Amino acid sequence: MCLFHFLAVIVTTFAQDEGSFVEKCTKPRLTPAAILDVIMANYSRSLPGNPVGVQVEVTVQDVMELSVLSNSFTADIWFSSIWYDPRLAYSHLDNCRQNLSFDDRFEKLIWSPNVCIVNTKSAHVHRSPKPNVLLMLLPNGTIWLNYRIRVQSPCSMDLARFPIDTQYCQLVFESYSYNTASVSVNWMANPVTVLPEISLADFDLSRYRTSRHTEVYKAGEWYRLTVEFEFTRKYGFYILQLYVPTYISLFISWIAFCIDTKALPARIVLGVNSLMSLTFQFGNIIRSLPPVSYVKAIDLWMCTCVGFIFASLLELAFVAYQDKKLILKSGKSNAAISTLVSYLKHFEPYHDVSSPPPPAPLDEKKSMSRTTSTGTNRSRSELDGLDTKDLEEEIAEYRKLAYARKKWRLLDFGANVDRISFIVFPLTFAAFNVVYWTYYLQDVRISTWT
């Protein structure tokens, strides 16, 4: 572990500086309790210097969760503070003992810079079963204080590129009790260590950066150390669970362009089912996101796909409306022709046929049936009736032919519209895909990571 490696370096350096004493060392001369009694006899919990230099180091053990709903991440870390207090030096008492280790109770007996994480939503020291706190005292008076804690700290969530987004989370360290006049807090040479086995289900911890600046409060100025972690989302889940199903729904809606225009129910079912499945998929994804007011990448994608499916339904409605217009025009034409025929029947030579004279008495009918003139009038009336019947049949035949002609013209028009739509819709969607994926797959971290 990096912390123990650092400690070994400190011990080795001290041993090199005190090499003459180490060579003369045979065995420890005092027990730890005796050394502690001597150095703590006249010890005071006041500042050991002005200002005291404090170095900070962080080792990330694990990252359990990064929540977009709470705008925070939860992690287990080892957090170390190192400073120098010459009043605790014991090399003059025992040059053979390289360090003294204590638990958290000894910390309460000595001065400490009280370096803490000031931006946490929650933090607690692990107990397994006792508090995971290590305080190590080196012979020259250097103190190394280490905590193993679980922290929940805020993140700067920006979901504008979701699900192809990058999120940033921060840990901010300060000496809570001492300002810049008393304590100078700074990072160690190797400030942050991330264990390689860290793995999250939906994010990768891609990189981190550290910074130091002076924070101004009403009580004065404090040194602030910030470590910022960059988390890149793994969007493979969303490709399989969102993008691929939307592609399939969209392609299914385009199958309607290949179905005959007379099969309107089948085409309507395809379009409506695709629209409903797309809405259901979007609802499942959006439930796991906070209600932000700006447009996200997933919003743009889903709205565009819904727009394409809705446009295919509009194309179907347009073709169906043209068919309805033909039926309405045909009905009006039939009514006009029927009115014209009824009107013509009131004129010669159709008046006698269409409006027969009132019936005569029975005796007159018998006498008239024997006359030659009556037979001639009947033959003439039958001829007129045949002429009227032929005219109506010709008009009906003409109406049928005109309707059939318009119907075939409409079917041909609908087929042409479907053929054009079958080409235009995929080409337009392909152009949208090129623009969408080119924009959102580009690496924008350089512009935000300074």
From TrEMBL:
Subcellular location(s) of the protein: Cell membrane; Membrane
Cross-referenced SUPFAM superfamilies: Neurotransmitter-gated ion-channel transmembrane pore (SSF90112), Nicotinic receptor ligand binding domain-like (SSF63712)
Lineage, opening ranks: Eukaryota, Metazoa, Ecdysozoa, Nematoda, Chromadorea
GO terms under biological process: chloride transmembrane transport
Low complexity biased stretches: 369-378
Record's protein name: Ligand-Gated ion Channel
CDD domains given in the database record: LGIC_ECD_GABAAR, LGIC_TM_anion
Neurotransmitter-gated ion-channel ligand-binding domain segment(s): 36-234
Transmembrane segments: 235-256, 268-286, 298-321, 420-440
Domain Neurotransmitter-gated ion-channel transmembrane: 242-389
Membrane topology, record value: Multi-pass membrane protein
Signal peptide per UniProt: 1-15
